[in-house]
Amino acid sequence: MENIIEIKRVNLLKKSDYFLLLNYTVFTTLGIVSIFWDWQASIGPLIVTILILIIIRKVDIWSYIIWFIFGFISLSFFLSWIFNLSFGIFLLQTACFTAVKPAISTFKGIGRDRTDIVFSLNSTEFMCLLPENNDYKGYAMNPMGYRKWFKIADIISVKRDRQNLVIALRERLIRPRELNTEDVDLIINFFQARMPHLTNTLEPESVRREEERIDWVKLTFIAIPAISAGLAIYFFAYNGRNFYSTILVVFLAILVAVVLLKIINQSNHTTQND
């Protein structure tokens, strides 16, 4: 379907490409050095890296991301136990080895000019760049990896917040990135001409409350178990060297996360009924 509005940026990824190349080069260098440092300890991470590259070429891992993570952690635990390695060191080496391929790809494409669409809109949906969870570090590394699509029918209101565009959907607020003042004017004028009721509608307070609730849920559901598990592995599982204790800590962290999510959902359900 043809776009009614299409906003583009030239070489938006230029800075991020250099930043990515620097990071990939550092990790690649560490991986190469680790092989010469202890080649026997590098066998396990190399096996995992080769398997990851094969799987990525054959399967869309994002469709099976939970199984991919489970398999990766299980295999890493198993191989780190066989080779008598720290689980943390094992993961670090694997990360270093997997950085080789993207380092080569980034180096090959770093000199090319490229035009990217940062915002598009047609009669049924719109696309924008939107970092989640305030993940601006990841956004700086790969802005186009944060493309999100939303339905026009889900829009409650469209307005300007200082120099930024704010779009209220049914369950959240979004603030598209990489839009200048002229871009915001173009989008606001489009909605004023085609759907004026959206520009004259204030976002409901429930949307803001829901946005704040989601932020707290993510903080509670992810941060507390992850930080607790990291500290427990460091102090009580000898930084991952105690295989069984590490597995127990990870299992307990997942259990705590599930319990916390259940409590939060129950609390929210009770609040809505009241």
Largest sheet: 4 strands, antiparallel
Number of helices: 10
From the N-terminal CA to the C-terminal CA, the straight-line distance is 44 Å
Summing up helix and strand content along with how strands pair, one would put the structural category as alpha+beta
> How many runs of DSSP E, i.e. beta strands?
7
* SSE ordering: EHHHHHEEHEEEEHHHH
Low-confidence stretches: none
Strand content: 5-15%
Q: Helix amount, in percent?
A: 55-70%
The radius of gyration over CA amounts to 23 Å
Mean pLDDT: 76
- Can you tell me the overall shape? globular
In which order are the strands of the major sheet placed? 1-2-3-4
Describe how the helices and strands are arranged.
Layout: E1 5-10, H1 14-37, H2 43-58, H3 65-82, H4 87-98, H5 100-109, E2 115-121, E3 125-129, H6 136-141, E4 147-151, E5 155-161, E6 164-169, E7 173-174, H7 181-194, H8 196-199, H9 205-236, H10 243-273
Antiparallel strand pairs: 1-2, 2-3, 3-4, 5-6, 6-7
What does this protein structure show overall?
The protein is built from ten helices and seven strands. With 274 residues, it is of the alpha+beta class.
